[in-house]
Automatic annotation (TrEMBL):
<comment type="similarity">
    <text>Belongs to the BolA/IbaG family.</text>
</comment>
<dbReference type="InterPro" id="IPR002634">
    <property type="entry name" value="BolA"/>
</dbReference>
<dbReference type="InterPro" id="IPR036065">
    <property type="entry name" value="BolA-like_sf"/>
</dbReference>
<dbReference type="Pfam" id="PF01722">
    <property type="entry name" value="BolA"/>
</dbReference>
<dbReference type="InterPro" id="IPR050961">
    <property type="entry name" value="BolA/IbaG_stress_morph_reg"/>
</dbReference>
<protein>
    <submittedName>
        <fullName>Transcriptional regulator BolA</fullName>
    </submittedName>
</protein>
Amino acid sequence: MKVTPEMVKNYIQQGLDCEHIHVDGDGRHFEAVIVSKEFAGLGMLKQHQLVYKVLGDRMGPIHALSMKTLTPEQWANQA
């Protein structure tokens, strides 16, 4: 079964409280913008590790996942 951006989005939302999430991709390569209060106090590496932990075994068919992870405060200040 081909993985869709919507599936990746749903997987992440099932394990992470997201204020905003957007995922694009072609079935193997994905790009995500993820905004979560759960990232507060964590460095970028720890934030990405948290997302990978949420995805778990579902990462198997995903060849690459590029992420931009932000706290709600960082997201608000980006505009």
